Amino acid sequence: MYKNTGSEPKMANLPYFLDGTLNINNRWVKLAAIIPWTDVEEIYALNFTSHTGPKALPARTAFGSLIIQVKLSLTDEETVEMISENPYLQYFLGFERYKQEAPFDSSMMTHFRKRFGAQDIKDIDELLHTATRKKEEDSNDDSDNDPPSNKGSLIVDASCVPGDIHYPTDLGLLNKAREKTEEVIDILWCHRSNTEDKVKPRTYREDGRKSFLSIVLKKRVSKKKRREVINRQFHCVRRNLASIDELKKYADLTLLKPSLYRELLVIGTLYQQQQYMYDNKVTSVDDRIVSIHQPHIRPIVRGKAGAHTEFGAKISISVVDGWTFTDTISFDSYNEGTELISQIEKYKERFGYYPESTHADKIYRNKENRAHCKKHGIRISGPSLGRPPKDEKLRKEQKDIQRQDEAIRNQVEGCFGVAKRRYKLDRIFTKIKASSETLIALIFMVMNLDKALAFLSLFGQYYKQLLEHFLNFISIISQGEHLKRRVIQ
Q1: At 325, phi and psi to the nearest 5?
Q2: Which of 37, 94, 240, 254 gets the highest tally of CB atoms within 10 A of its CB?
Q3: Residue 476: inside a domain, yes or no?
Q4: If DSSP states are collapsed to H, E and C, what string results for 90-131?
């Protein structure tokens, strides 16, 4: 039964909520115990070469904040708010006492991503894997310490990590370039000097805007009409760039914001690329710019059903016993088949032996990779070269092995799926190239942290049950000895 008191509940005294010890079984307390903070400190300290200036925040605070953001899928502002509200998160960051105020400004998250590069994250991930693997080997210690010649399975694959940009079109990029150059002209004209007898350069911005809307607001447009509007945008951008070159004589470009000045340089390259494609009637060019704000992003042709072309970074990963290693992060398109040999050699460097089998897609099974695998006794997944055997039993066995290989290879697809759905790898919102690479590496490292935490929890439960069984066994034996003495007496 519920009884209505008829009055609003009183606010509890907040200090009582914060009085007491933390739960040692909390996930953040367990997570803080498995991260090598000393090694993180050494990597973090390499970013500071000067001994002057304000004191930087500790490495544990910086690195822990990045882990919290990725693990909880938060923005920079939400990360700081969450840290100020949660005492367990503050313990994870190394705070001695709980503080209700924000520990730092949200803009510091950008600096944290700059101070921990993608290679630094990979190195920390390797240290985590080594520590977890050592505990696993201690739990499965055998008498034979000689490493086998080949052992384990290596699963490799590649995917694209889309960036947060609008779908690029030639007309849209030229229209954005026109608007940016008009903004530059307005700023330079306002800060001009010794140009009283001059007239402000004409931009024809209204005509350019109308011509752009005449295309984008229609469902179907002929190819001839589209080329006419693109040509008109070319004229506007060309005229604006010429006006900017003239205004540079009377106003310094340092008056522009750094971001706007960088975009002006990008527009110059973009104009040349678009002019080349327009004149030669082609749809591609080397190092094609698809975003003025993020000029490092390149089109990645994947041929998927949902999107034939994606725009972002291309990554290659390898999965070993559920642990995901980020091998390559590149914003330039490349053939992932050329990465297999280096991935196999990294496996040899990590474990001291080559894998027994390698599970990869069809693009990896080229002549060079097959020869390398054959040289080191590695079985590569997929059908073998040549005609299938005439023996029906042998042919069936090969098909069963291929089916099992595909089932094993699905594990890497699951890793991409979890990273994109759970950890927001499907769209990277960072704007700087280095920050984007750091975030991608962080996502896979946090995935591995969750797996390591689950393994250690299972490892602890196993030994806890083993200890209980041992104590029960001792109790039974002691009871038996007690009964034996009573019979003798």
Answers
A1: -110, 130
A2: 240
A3: no
A4: HHHCCCCCCCCCCCCCCCHHHHHHHHCCHHHHHHHHHHHHHH
Rounded to 5°, angle at Cα 421 from 420 and 426:
35
Cα separation, 394 vs 400, whole angstroms: 10
User: Taking the chain, what is the end-to-end CA distance rounded to the nearest angstrom?
Assistant: 62
Half-sphere exposure of 274 (CA within 13 A, CB side): 29
364 and 434 assigned to the same domain: yes
Asked if residue 154 is part of any domain, the answer here is: yes
Count Cα neighbours of 87 within 13 Å in the Cβ-side half-sphere.
Answer: 14
- Nearest Cα neighbor of 31 from 60, 58, 59 is 60
Q: How far is CA 463 from CA 157, 227, 291, 460, 466, in A?
A: 36, 72, 55, 5, 5
Contact by Cβ (8 Å): 372, 341 = yes
Containing domain of residue 177, as a range?
170-280
- 482 assigned to some structural domain: no
pTM for the predicted model, two decimal places: 0.86
Which residue positions in the chain have pLDDT lower than 50?
Answer: 8-17, 143, 462-467, 469-471, 482-484, 486-489
Whether residues 275 and 370 share a domain: the answer is no
Q: Give the closest residue to 171 by CA, choosing from 27, 315, 274.
A: 274
Rounded to the nearest integer, the mean pLDDT of the chain is 86
Task: Clarify whether residues 157 and 178 are in a common domain.
Answer: no
298-326 confidence digits (pLDDT tens) = 999 887 777 789 999 999 999 999 899 99
Residue 288 lies in a domain: no
pLDDT in tens, 2-43: 555 555 444 444 444 455 678 888 899 999 988 999 999 999
> What pLDDT shows up at residue 329?
96
- Cite the DSSP H helix spans in 2-106: 14-17, 27-34, 37-45, 59-72, 76-85, 87-92
